[in-house]
Every structure is written in structure tokens, then in C-alpha cells.
Amino acid sequence: MQRLPRVILVLAALAVCAGLVFAAKTCPNCGVSNKDSNRFCKTCGEVLPEASSPQPTTPRVSGFVSVDGSVVRITSQPSGAAVSVDGRSRGKTPLQLTDLEPGRHSIELARSGYRSYSGEFRITGSFGSIVVTTDPVGAEVFLDGKSKGAAPEGGLSLANVPYGRRTITARLYGYKDAVQVVDLKSAGPIGVTCRLLYGKGWLVVKSDPPGAGLLVNDTSAGQTPLVAELEPARYGLKLMRRGYYDWIGDANVQYAESTIVRAVLYRLETRKLPLLLGAIVGIGGGAVSAVKGESEYGKYRDATTQADAERYHRSTAAWDTRRNIALAAGVALAGAWWILKW
């Protein structure tokens, strides 16, 4: 009876020793089993998670993480486990991620009916190269906001660029910035072409008096005052207003700037009074000729001899001709006086 407790104690001690000997940790990076006493994976050197108390009643999800450059592949046993990376839900296994930055990341796999799996993995810093060409040549190139110099004809080579999404901006005076976003996943080199479009400036034209018609390079642009958005260049200008001398000049439009032109128009010499006087004289002369013609026509009707009748008939026709000419001239001059504003 006294030996039985001793046997029980010996068996319990043996069970504890066996548990310590056969306990193992699974590497979250490569999936290799390690001794429970190991702190680092014997294969890849990854830090091993601390052993947790066994819970044999509920199985645990087995997780496997494979890292190849910036590509992370996550699988589990059983599959269909919900994946969270750095506390953010990313989908279910099997899963492939390509948007993670270099560095250490935490992972957790959860599936109904299983204990969750948690661990860490590391993405080592990977680098590639990008060759940037610009159209036109010579634009300044920026990588993630930092200047890298001007792009020569053969392109600008950017080395040791970290993997991931990179923003490339090309900038040249007189042009709009060209922006390209590159997802760098390989060593490359990757070719990127930035085509810059012309920037624009503003032409502001004012005239005294306003309301003058504007021609820009012989093309109608409207009436003053006027604001036009144009590409940077030198433009020929012509302002026209009835009753004023034409104004001719030019303007140099610069990128992202306002070029202001102020033109003074000079009035032409007035001709309205002579036109009015001429119209009065013409109409008055027509009226006098009409009266004289009627008088001669009366004499023609009262003529007693053939010779008098012929003479008055010719006189009547002459006065009618004078009347028609004078009235036509007077009406034309009156119309010109009415239409012309100078």
C-alpha cells in the first residue's frame, strides 16, 4: 500500500518529462517545427512564438506564410480561414498579397470551430530600378516628391527604388506636370514615359472706348474687354471699331501668367456734317427741279403752236431729269449720314 503512491509519482514525473521533450513550436515564417525550448527558427531564424497551454479539446488552425520579394502567400489547414494582417481584414486563405511594405507584420488566422493562429512574418527591403523618359526631353523628374534631376534624351535611370507604389512626376516650365504611378514589384528596370502637355496663360485686352472687335492672329476672338486663355506664344492683335482708326500690336503670353494689353483708339475725322449738307442740297435741288418741271409742263399743255409745244416738252423732260438726279443724290447722302456713326 505504501509503494502505490510512489509508483504514481514516478509515472507523473515521466509524463511531464515526455511533454517537455516532445513539445514543439511551428515557425510562422517557414512552417518548420522546432523544439519548444528554441527561441529562433532553426531554418530561417524567425522569432518563434511563445508556447501556449495545450487545449486538446479544440484543434488549432495551422498557418503557413511564404514571402517572395514583395509577394506574400498565405495558406492554412484547413483552408478558408479569415486572414487579418496588422489588425486589418484581408480575406480568406489561400490568399496572396502584394501591397505590403517592407518590414515586420503580424498575422492572425481564424476559422469557426478552430482555435485561431497568430504569428509574425517579415518582408525584407527589396529594390528595383526605373528608367524615366520625358516628352519633351529635359523635364525635371521627381520620385515620391524628391527631385532626381533632368531626364536626358536616353532617359533618367533611378536605381535602388524600394518595392511598392511609387509616384513619378515630370515638370518643365511652360508645361503641365505629368504624373505616373508605378507599382514596383521586380528588379526591373521598368520603363516609364511622361508626356507633358502645354500649359496656358491668359491674355487680357481692354480698349478705350470699349466694344472694339479683337482679332488674334487674324482670328476673331470677341469684343473688348476680353479675357482669353491661350498657349504660351507671341500673338498678333488687331482692334477695330467703327469711327476709329484700327489699332495693331502684339502680345507675348507666358505660362500661368496674365498678359494685359490696354489700347487707346483714336477717332476718325468727322464727315457727318458734309453728308448732311449734301443731302439737304440734293433734296432741295430735286424739289426746285420738280417745281420748274411742272411749270414747263403747264406751258406745254397751253402751247398754241407746234414749235412752242416741242420747246416746252424738251424743257419739261430736262427738268424732270434734274429732279431725279438731285433727289437720288440727296437720298443717298441722307442714308449715308444716318448709317455712318462718324
Task: Describe what you observe in this structure.
With about 350 residues, the protein is of the alpha+beta class. The chain has 4 domains: about 25-125, Immunoglobulin-like (Sandwich); about 125-195, Immunoglobulin-like (Sandwich); about 200-265, Carboxypeptidase-like, regulatory domain (Immunoglobulin-like); about 270-340. Helices cover about 25% and strands about 40% of the residues. It has helices at about 5-20, 270-300, 305-340, and strands spanning about 25, 35, 60-70, 70-75, 80-85, 90, 95, 105-110, 115-125, 125-135, 140-145, 145-150, 155-160, 165-170, 180-185, 190-195, 200-210, 215, 220-225, 225-230, 235-240, 245-255, 260-265. It has a 4-stranded antiparallel β-sheet with strand order 6-5-8-9, with no helix packed on it. A 4-stranded antiparallel β-sheet has the order 12-11-14-15, with no helix packed on it. It has a 4-stranded antiparallel β-sheet with strand order 19-18-21-22, with no helix packed on it. A hairpin with a 6-residue loop joins strand 8 (about 105-110) and strand 9 (about 115-125). Helix 2 runs antiparallel to helix 3 (about 305-340). The longest helix is centred in the last third of the chain and has 34 residues, at about 305-340. It is rod-shaped, with a radius of gyration of 50 Å. The termini are far apart.
Defining traits:
rod-shaped, Immunoglobulin-like, alpha+beta, 342 residues, 25% helix, 3 helices, 40% strand, four-stranded antiparallel β-sheet
